[in-house]
Amino acid sequence: MNDFAQLYGRPSEGEWAAPGRVNLIGEHTDYNLGFVLPIALPQTVRAQAARSGDGQLRLWSAQGRELVALRVDDLAPGSVPGWAGYPAGVVWALREAGHPVGGADLRLDSDVPSGAGLSSSAALECVVAAAYNDLYGLGLSAAELAVLAQRAENAFVGVPCGIMDQMASMCCRPGAALFLDSRDLTMRQVPVDLAGAGLALLVLDTRVKHDLGDGAYAALRAGCERAAALLGLPALRSLQPSGLADALAQLPPELVPLVRHVVTENARVEAAVARLDAGDPAALGPILTAGHASLRDDYRVSCPETDLAVEAAVAAGAHGARMTGGGFGGSVIALVDADAAGHVAAEVTAAFRAAGYAEPRTLTAVPAEGARRLR
Ligand code: ADP
Ligand code: MG
Fold it and tell me: PANTHER family given for it (predicted)?
């Protein structure tokens, strides 16, 4: 049931995959035009696709379990509710940018946990962007496709996310973290040999997503933009740690912790890259934990569940841990000795049980490949 031919009465022209991601460090820095350091997950959204000649975009997802049919000419921001807005938004963004694309039939399937802070939404956008790029022979680069996918999420779905998730899903490479400068999208693949150092990266999905997230994200972003304007800067990225104390003295009190987080977080990304370049991934641990404290105390996007996961992981011997993703729930990453991964996961699970929380879902993150054609 529900294979491509059964859904659409013809074979697909190909199949593409795009991964979810975890960000090692650099949270809420991308929309301040700063640094991020994500890795792609082995978990992907996959799309089987074929062009349609009738101007229709037909979408079916093994997770959404409904067939959505849209006229490409009618696509407009806000017009497509629910999950279909992400793929439809990509087609809209391509056409808005002047690319001559028409309809397609898509069959989507995914093993990226959805709503867990692992960026299933960007994976969904990016797999559609990659499929359209090949099907319609657009010849766009991975970074160009990421920018269009972000535009789909910002302008079509209405989520004011930065560029990290889409760049991670499009541009990551196996065995490496993507050191991305969000100001000009310059990037460097930084080798991350966790296994060689006897380490593993645990992902603890708290399975909570507190509702205040969406409005709070926009408010935080607006606060950063207001602070940059008050300081006469194009973006908070331009503020160096050496100028932080002077800058904070000029700001209204409510903006002080936001600016302190962004400036110290950018410095933490640079410190993390230096440790990886030095071949010392274990030294990321304290940087991760310091990043979590900054998200909890200054940026205030943490929540009791993510705080508990970080505390329990560190108490169980993790080198360091932090919330990853936008916040208010989602996932925590913990850098652990590979032979202690089971113990740390069990200790976090026990702490959640004792607190009366649902058990976290655990996976191990291995730096994997960005979006690609499978066949
Ligand atoms: P995250 O990106 O952290 O997973 P979001 O809330 O940004 O969380 O995106 C999750 C949304 O993306 C889902 O609610 C759904 O609308 C959409 N989505 C993700 N994966 C799929 C899929 N395989 N099929 C259909 N919709 C999906
Ligand atoms: Mg998302």
Answer: GALACTOKINASE-RELATED, MEVALONATE KINASE/GALACTOKINASE
